[in-house]
Write a structure and sequence with these properties.
Helix 5 crosses helix 6 (135-141) and helix 14 (358-380) runs antiparallel to helix 15 (385-406). The chain is mainly alpha-helical. The longest helix has 36 residues, at 65-100. The chain has a two-stranded antiparallel ribbon. It is built from 16 helices and two strands.
Length: 452
Amino acid sequence: MALANVTITEGFRRLFYLITPSESSFERKEDVPDYLNQSVPFFLGAIVVEALVSWLTGIAPKARINDSVNSVTAGILSQMMKMLSLTAEFSAYVWIYARFNVVELPWNSPYTWWLCFIGVDLGYYIFHRMGHEINIMWAAHQVHHSSEEYNLTTALRQGAMQGFTSWIFYLPLALAVPPSVFFVHIQFNTLYQFWIHTEVIKSLGPLEYILNTPSHHRVHHGRNRYCIDKNYAGTLIIWDRLFGTFQAEEEHVVYGLTHPLNTWDPIWAQVCHFKHIWSTFWQTPGIKNKLSVLFMGPGWSPGKPRCGEITDIPDVKYPHPKYDSSLPLWATTYILIHFLITIFVFSHLALKQRFLACSVVNVGVLCLLVSVFSFGALFDRRWYAAQLETLRVTVFLMLIIATSSTGDSLVGGIFDLPAMGLTALRLWFMFSASLWLVLATKQAIHGVKKEQ
């Protein structure tokens, strides 16, 4: 059975880095498959299986819809940013390889393949460790740690700004490793880290000594004091063991940031620490101290060690309260349906970005940003959520109607659906607009009466 030209067996092997040099070696970088996008169906399948296992057995906490939507939203924002930065990231590697490589390793040699495997994994360890120990890099990476849950959707919660620094740490490989080989391993190193974000798998026995596993990575996501700045590994845990950052899982892990965000706003999650750095930078006296705010650890302040004091970290124990703002079942279901539509729009943009007009891409990106911000406001029960959602679905309805009437319109590239699908979508958004117009009106009337 095949899915997106990838067999089920092959798709799941890729998630575990169970591939051979012969099946993943290519002469030209243009021939390297888009392994990440091809793996999306397997991500979704694994998420569903994990949720069912957790629900049926109780072996792990049940996923919360608001948290899972927030995690996937962060992944969407990250991929949107990669649409802009990925070309530059890979171009730098190709440019250095073409001009400064000191050894021309054969692209089809197993030795080159394994050397790149080791090199990429070591590069990831260094990048990941710097992402925790350099404040300006932590501002981008902290998004990944902002969930208070630990499941497969957490793996998708990525910082949109990370790509602007991560590529630097792999450039030494360009002195010897052909770009096509590097492009294979940089994708598989990412794919491997998906499945380790789970509480369903407890231990892998002897493999725990060599591989990064769910147990090791649970520690990395913990905010217990014993978990802070530990287990940076991508695929191999040997780097943490070698460089003194390894910590075995001991007491039950409490997940999330040491100072939780307490919001479902996905935009704020991406920018909040940058804002904190900006404020701290201007409040801190002296140019040396100002630079330290940027390049020391996130816990640093004048007079403290580079990465701060462990005693400054709140000493939390499991179980620990989590941020929640539960909605009625109908509201959660409503957001989930609209979120699936948002994923469809994003997938279409990502797949056909190169063939769509810039104006179409810009409209699509703007719609996505407004949508995910509105979902966060609804989950947070913000006072403006009803008005914002009314505006959002009304604008979407106008776009859909424009597409239906012109077919080949400006937004026709976004809603690439048959006539029946567009009709169903139009009816759903008409219902949504009517619903929120009524709710926003009632809220406004209630507010006026309350003032009187």
